Amino acid sequence: MTEIVRLPDAEAVAREAARRWIEIARQAVEARGAFRIALSGGETPRLLYRLMASEPWRDQAPWAETHVFWCDERRVPPSDPRSNYRMARETLLDHVPIPSEQVYRMQGGGLISSATSDYEEKLRRHFRLGRGEWPRFDLILLGMGTDGHTASIFPGTRAVSDLSHMVLVYEVPQLGVERMTLTLPVINNARHILFLVVGEEKAETLAAVLEGDYRPSTYPAQAARPVDGTLTWLVDEAAASRLTAN
Ligand code: 6PG
């Protein structure tokens, strides 16, 4: 089932996301002793990461049991201002008591094949995966671009149809740059998927994604649908302004 939660503004979206993050994290720790999350980059989650690094949220999250992965990364070193890892480190990870060995960075600057196998190896080891098994994240945080991409799964690319890898590095033709991304089978194996979408510039695409025909190659965000988990869209009024359903 898809839950769409409309909130007044970006600040309210971040607060609701923080509340859900903490709730899911606590449940995961209680049930399995650990909380595994995959973060996204872009502008929208900055506010959320800053909230999670500040009181009262900071003290409520189980950092000692939290394991942080990424949904996607740019092909840049971790010091580059475009790095998703750097953004999360500066806004969140540097300010919370998370053990450094529980932060699993995608090697954006590495060679294609070694960066992919490095991350697959990290996933395999952490989730103790056997042959044919997929990682099961407790929470995957996603955003959506105005073109309908999510993570670094861009319209019309092989990332939309790749069902055999866990991690993909490929050149995104519309950007002319390489991106690394978790694939849809990993995303869709999560217990909870949370989309954060704000801003009027996303309104038209959001309406097409949530209320239009199912065309995942055109709107990859439509393909993020957990096999056995919850799917929640936290959207602000500006982004929701073209939705017909309330
Ligand atoms: C990234 C992302 C990407 C992002 C969307 C939305 O690294 O850029 O993971 O999928 O979530 O592009 O980005 P904004 O929040 O900046 O609109």
Concise synopsis of the structure shown:
It contains eight helices and nine strands.
Tell me what the structure shows.
The protein is α/β, with parallel strands linked by helices. It has one domain: Rossmann fold (3-Layer(aba) Sandwich). Helices cover 30% and strands 20% of the residues. The protein contains eight helices and nine strands. The chain has helices at 10-32, 45-52, 57-60, 84-91, 112-126, 158-161, 184-187, 203-211; strands spanning 2-7, 35-39, 66-70, 72-74, 139-142, 167-172, 177-182, 192-197, 230-236. Strands 1-9-8-5-2-3 form a six-stranded parallel beta sheet, covered by helices on one side. Helix 8 links the parallel strand 8 and strand 9 (230-236). Helix 1 crosses helix 2 (45-52). The longest helix has 23 residues, at 10-32. The radius of gyration is 17 Å and the shape is globular. Bound molecules: 6-phosphogluconic acid (6PG). Residues 40-44, 71-72, 84, 143-145, 149-151 line the site of 6-phosphogluconic acid.
